[in-house]
Write the C-alpha cells for this entry.
Amino acid sequence: MPLESNARIAKELARHGYNAEREAITLLASAPDSATAVESVVDRAPDDALRITSDHVRAVTNDRSASGTGPTSSGPDPTDSESDSTVPAAESTHESPPTRNGDISPSEATKDRSPVETEGYSSTLRSDSNRNTDSAPHHDPDLRELEIGNDMTGRSTGTGEYGDFVRTFRDRYERLSKVLRGRVNHRPAEAIAEMPGGSDAAMIGLVNDVRSTKSGHWLVELEDTTGTFPALVMKDKGLADLVDEILMDECLAVEGTLADDSGILFADSLHFPDVPRTHRTGAADRHVQAALISDIHVGSDEFMADAWHRFTDWLHTPEAEPVEYLLLAGDMVEGVGVYPNQDEELEIVDIYDQYEAFAEHLKEVPADTEIVMIPGNHDAVRLAEPQPGFNDEIRSIMDVHDAQIVSNPATVTVEGVDVLMYHGVSLDEVIAELPEEKASYDEPHKAMYQLLKKRHVAPQFGGHTRVAPEERDYLVIEDVPDVFHTGHVHKLGWGKYHNVLAVNSGCWQAQTDFQKSVNIDPDAGYAPILDLDTLEMTVRKFS
Ligand code: D5M
Ligand code: FE
Ligand code: ZN
C-alpha cells in the first residue's frame, strides 16, 4: 500500500510522534518513493525535533537522485489501514467551488437549507499534491497576524469574597453603562428618588428583579452604585417583546415618567447596550481562512474519531491550503465527573490520558496551522467563568502544536478580524429563559444574538452558569467583535446580527444517552470555514 496521500503521510509522521509542515508533506508526497522518503526522514530527524520541516525532507530527498518515477507500492503500514474505509473514495480531480454564504438569514442557515456546502473532499490527493509541488503557495508566517485580547489566564485575583463580587459588578456596570450613556439622559437611583413627581427620568442599572404583576404589567427593578429603583412597564406600551428578553443582572436603561410620589418610574422605553447597526467589520487583506470548531470530546465513547480524521485529512489537501488558522472553542476532551453517570460513556477514564489522546489528534493538523484554544465546561480548569487557559501540566500535554491556549472567553484578532471566542455555557440558560422564537437549540445563533445585544457573554449570576468574581468583569463584551464563535450546545447555526457573524460550531461527539433522553440531536462532524477576507462562511461535513 503506497503512502499515496498527504493526509496519510501526516498520519504516518504523527504515528512516529512528529508534526509536519504542510510543505514538508507536499515534498514527501511528490518524492518518487514516498514511503521510503518518510522512513528516511523519520530516521534522520534530529532527536529534539518535534516537527518535520521542508528542510528535513530536502536533506533526505536531495541525497537521493530522482531514480524512480511514480508512486511505489512499498512501505505498507498495517496499523494505518483503519482509516481507509472511512475516507470517501477519491474519484475525480474535479473540485467543486465551495459555495459561499454571504448574508445568510438565520432560518436559511439551519432550517430552510442544509448548512452543508460541501461533503468531505473530492480531490484526488496524489495527483493534486504532485500538481501542487511547485505551485503550492508557501505559507509565509510573516503575513500572519494573531493577537489575543481579554485573556485572564494567570491573572485571577478573586478569592470568592463579598468584596470581589462587588468589584466585578461595579466593573460590569461601569463599562456597560458607558455604552448606554449616550442614548439616555440618566440619573443615579438616589437622585431619581429626589426628583419632583411627574418628571421625565431615565436610569441605567443592572436588573435586580423582573416580575409580572397581577394586572399583566411588569415590574423591573434596576440597581446602580447608589441604590435600586423600580420601573413599571405597562402592558399597553408595546414593550412586551423586549421584556421577554430581559435576564437578571444584565445592564439595561429605562426611560419614562416618575409617578406623583416619585416612588416608581413608568417606563416608555427600554434599551439594551446592543451592537450598533453601523458596526464596520475588519478584513484580512489576502485570501486566508480559519476553521472554527469546538466540542471535540476526546475520551468519550461517542467521540467521532473517523470524522475527525477526515477533517484533518482534508486540512492537508490543496483545497484547504488557505485554512491557516484553527480556532477551538472548548470541550477538547470529555473530562470526568462533568455530568451524573458520565463515567458509563467514557472510553478513556483518566483526564490526563484524555489530553494525551487529544494531543495525538491535534498532531494530525498541519504543523503550520496557527491554533487558538479556550477551555469549556468539560475541560480540566475551574468551571466558573472566566475560565483560565489551563494549568502548566495540561498545557505541556497539549504543547504539540505551539497552540495559543487562552481563557474562556477571549478575543482573537486574526489578520484584522476580531473574533470573540466563548465556550457557550450561558446559551443553555438563554435558551431556557427566552421564548422559542428568540433562542432555541435549533437556532443557537439566535441565542448568541441575545448575548451580543446584552454585550455580555453570561449575564445571569447564580444560575446555571457559574461566574467567578474577579477584579474586572471579563465577560463583558466591551468591543464589538466581527465574529462571535461559540460551541457547547452541539448544534450548528450561524447568521449575522447587526453585521456581526455569530457562529455556533457543532461538535465531534455523536449523540450521548443524556442527549437522547432530552431529544438533543447534535450536529456532529462539521467544520465551519470562515473567509477572513470576506467574512463569508462555508460549512464542510466530515461525518
Ligand atoms: O453539553 C452539550 C449540550 O447538552 C449542552 O446544551 C448541555 C447539554 N447537556 C449534556 N449533558 C447534560 C446533562 N447531563 N445535564 C444537563 N445538560 C446536559 P456539553 O457540556 O458540551 O456536553
Ligand atoms: Fe461540549
Ligand atoms: Zn460544553
